[in-house]
């Protein structure tokens, strides 16, 4: 049996995960972009039984129970045919529970690395408040909570990948194309 090849993409809210993943899939056709946040928003909007819980967590800036998110990621990977593609799994694993659930639920996945988009908080705040998608969680009150969750729950996961020798850290400050070129160089694309 072939296993999925996965690159996790982590970084603070507004670090450019979605922007850079889009550039990668537009340039390299063997990649698929799966944003955990997008999958959760789609599930919420399509009347999933977990919809209310997802909405509550998003507005609190907290992390949705992992079995919900991993289930959505797994279904999406199966739909794309997981042996053929390289998956950019964006915004995951956000905490210990995400991390542990991934390795429990998905059999022997092959995680190539974790790509970390490193960006200072003041830039994250500017980018999120300037984002024009109309997301209900892109307000200063929820963003403050999301930044706290990022610091307390996600940064330890990033350190875990570093300790395992699986972290590729990218300076995510600067213009979009400069950062894309840094990612291409780091991933040998
Ligand atoms: P994330 O998915 O990490 O939360 P996004 O890719 O959605 O971040 O980017 C957040 C906002 O910042 C968007 O409005 C995007 O257009 C903008 N943005 C992304 N990368 C840059 C960059 N390098 N410089 C300036 N703005 C950026
Ligand atoms: O990555 P994104 O900014 O789209 O995530 C939006 C929200 O989705 C997060 O603040 C969080 O509430 C939820 N989320 C989650 N678990 C993930 C990814 C996102 O609970 N792994
Ligand atoms: Mg995003």
Automatic annotation (TrEMBL):
GO terms for molecular function: ATP binding; nucleobase-containing compound kinase activity; phosphotransferase activity, phosphate group as acceptor. The keyword Cytoplasm applies. InterPro entries: Adenylat/UMP-CMP_kin, Adenylat_kinase_CS, P-loop_NTPase, UMP_CMP_kinase. Keywords: ATP-binding, Cytoplasm, Kinase, Nucleotide-binding, Nucleus, Pyrimidine biosynthesis, Transferase. It holds the Pfam family ADK. SUPFAM superfamilies: P-loop containing nucleoside triphosphate hydrolases (SSF52540). It catalyses: UMP + ATP = UDP + ADP. The keyword Nucleotide-binding applies. GO terms for biological process: 'de novo' pyrimidine nucleobase biosynthetic process; nucleoside monophosphate metabolic process; pyrimidine nucleotide biosynthetic process. It comes from the Eukaryota. Belongs to the adenylate kinase family. This is UMP/CMP kinase. It comes from Stentor coeruleus. The lineage of its organism: Eukaryota, Sar, Alveolata, Ciliophora, Postciliodesmatophora.
